[in-house]
Amino acid sequence: MVELLPSILSADFAHLGDQVAAAERGGGTAIHVDIMDGHFVPNLTIGPPVVKSLRKATSLPLDCHLMIDNPNEFIAAFAEAGADWVSVHYEACTHLHRTLQLIAQHGMKPGVVLNPATPVELIVEVLPMVHHVLIMSVNPGFGGQEFIPFSLKKLRRLAELRQELGLAFKIEVDGGVAHDTVAAIVQAGAELLVAGNAVFGAGQPEQDARSLLAAARQAAGE
Known about the structure:
Order of helices and strands: EHEHEHEHEEHEHEHH
Shape: globular
CATH superfamily: Aldolase class I
Distance between the termini: 7 Å
CATH class: Alpha Beta
CATH architecture: Alpha-Beta Barrel
Structural class: alpha/beta
């Protein structure tokens, strides 16, 4: 089942609760929260206080994507703030297995993220531990970027690996998910679609979430 995860990176932060509620009415089933530290990626966004406020505004799972160095130092804070899913970058974790264990120990669902240039094969050993794998289809740091086409090959490879290993993790994609890319993305195997600009960019999150999700489900034959 294809799901839409609206990304608040593109939302109007002055009206964040209302924007999230509108995206939820449009069919969003989890809220994607981009956490950036200005070190691992060239941008600064938000931290646990905003997650804590979001937790009060929605009952949907909060999917926190940590684009940060030293993620272990912040996992407890995000758990306390109310995060449900926490994903960390393969490229940021010296001890990835330990970090994923730490997320699970704090009662959250662990995920692992791969930058565009990082091969899927590098995370085979930890796939049994994760709730989801997030394939970055743009270079992380900023919203509104164009989809990188070779990401489709990575999504297909990940779907193959999941079948070969008999696992049930979800395949998530983030970056350039829009009306002109969503069919190919879904057909390559992605189930959790992160969309920011395509949902919030035009100021009509409910309507735009609904139409994007409908296009995705049509492409998936659902």
